[in-house]
Amino acid sequence: xxxxxxxxxxxxxxxxxxxxxxxxxxxxxxxxxxxxxxxxxxxxxxxxxxxxxxxxxxxxxxxxxxxxxxxxxxxxxxxxxxxxxxxxxxxxxxxxxxxxxxxxxxxxxxxxxxxxxxxxxxxxxxxxxxxxxxxxxxxxxxxxxxxxxxxxxxxxxxxxxxxxx
Length: 165
Fold this sequence. Notes:
single chain, alpha+beta, PvuII Endonuclease, Chain A, 5-stranded mixed beta sheet, two-stranded antiparallel ribbon, 5 helices, globular, disordered N terminus
């Protein structure tokens, strides 16, 4: 159960308009770098994108975030399910293990965030590609959207709030 003072409570109180403005500035900077320095990608990834997705999912689904870089899962749902959160601006994600529950969010460089997948992690794990040399299994956003249509309502986490950005 979320208690007063939890990190998640702070997430709910964030100035989401400012967050959206800052993310848009990052996306614009990334695009400008790619235009200025052709032949190189300046994709926003790593902790920046991962942490952004985690705080957005915590806000949307009322999750309690685990400490940063916790192995296994990023958060815990109110019903006790461990939740892995993935956030992408691209066309695919990668997973290292079979999560208990998986939330995948996507926010293109220009546009708003959408839920790509909200369901049992086993569903995505079963359909992910083979293990890569980096220990991750890729799965496309289009495949996750297809799989999400098959998830029963009682298998989903309830969305408490709209996507903040």
